[in-house]
Amino acid sequence: MNNLSNDLTNKNFEDEIDLRELFYVLWEKKFYIAAITSIFALITIIYALMLPNIYKSEAIMMPVGEMSSAGIGQYAGMASLAGITLPSSNAGSKSQEAIARVQSFEFFSNYFLPHIKLENLMAVKKWNQASNTLIYDESSFNSESRQWAQKAKPPRSIIPSSQQAYETYKGIISIAEDQKTLFVTLSVEHASPFIAQLWVEIIMDQIDQVMRHQDRQTAMKSIEYLNSLAPTVNYEEIKQALSSLQQEQMKRLMMVEANDNYIFKVLDSPIVPEVKSQPMRSLIVILGSMLGMLLSVLGVLALHYSKKSP
C-alpha cells in the first residue's frame, strides 16, 4: 500500500516537473514564437487586404397560389385519359419546380447567360466604387481589346464554355425555400453590388417567363385538343365533362396571361447593398495568427524534445 502511494506521488512530481519544463521551454523561446506569429499575422493581413469585397443582393418571395380544381375533381380521370393535366392546387409544387429550374444548367445556359456579359461572371477581379466600374483579371480577359486571354488546355478553350461558366454560376447564387413559411430566398453574390442586384432581377424575371410560357403552351394545346374532340362525342354527360375541362383550361390560360406575378410574389425586392458580405478580414487575420502561434509552439517543443531524447 505504501509503495503504491509513493509511486503515485513520484508520478505527480514528475508530471509537475514536465509541466514546469514545458513552460520554461516556451518562455525561453517566447521571442521566436512571437516572431513566427507576427509573420503569419502580417501574411494574413496582406492576403485579407488583397481579397476583393463581395456584395450579396437578395429577394424574398412567396409562392403564388394556383386556383383550385376541386369543382372538376369528378372529371380528373377523364382528363387523365385525354392526356390533359389539370392545374394543381398546391402552389408548393410550382415553387419547388422553379427552384430546381433556377439551379439547372438548362436555365443557366438558355435563359440567364444570354442576358449577361460572360466576362462579368468569369473574369472580374474587383469593383471600383469611385467610378462604379469593373476591373478585370488581365490574365483572363483583356478589357481594352475585349478579348479573352486565359490559358486553357483541351477540351477547354480560351473563351470559357457554358459548362465552365455554370460552375461559377452555382457558386454565386443561392435559392432556398423555408419549410415553415414556404418563403423563397434568392440571392446573388458579386464584386459589384449593382450587378448582384441586376442578376437577381434577371433570374426572377426569367423563371417567371419560362414557367408562364410552359403553362400557356400546355393550356392552349389542351383547349385545342378538347375543341377537336367535342364534335365526335355523342353522350351528353361526356359533353358536359369536356365543357368543364375546357372551362378549367380557359381559367388556367387566363391566370397565365392576367397575373403580373405568376410563380412568385415578391415580398422584398433586391437592393444594391452598401455593406459587403465577404470577406471577414478580421476573422482571417485572427485565424492566421492563431495558426502561426500553434505551429511555432509545436515547432519549439518538437525541436526541444528531439534534442533531449537519446
Estimate nothing, just give the exact number of structural domains: 2
Architecture of the largest domain, according to CATH?
Answer: 2-Layer Sandwich
Distance between the termini: 34 Å
What percent of the residues sit in helical stretches (DSSP H or I)?
A: 55-70%
Question: How is the CATH topology of the largest domain named?
Answer: Bacterial polysaccharide co-polymerase-like
Structural class: alpha+beta
Q: Write down the secondary-structure element order.
A: HHEHHHHEEEEHEEHHEH
Biggest sheet, open or closed, and with what strands and sense? 4 strands, antiparallel
Give the rounded overall mean pLDDT.
82
Rg (C-alpha, Å): 32 Å
Strand content: 5-15%
Strand order of the largest sheet: 6-7-1-8
Q: Describe the oligomeric state of these chains in a short phrase.
A: single chain
| Tally of separate helices | 10
Low-pLDDT runs = 67-79
Silhouette = elongated
The CATH class label of the largest domain is Alpha Beta
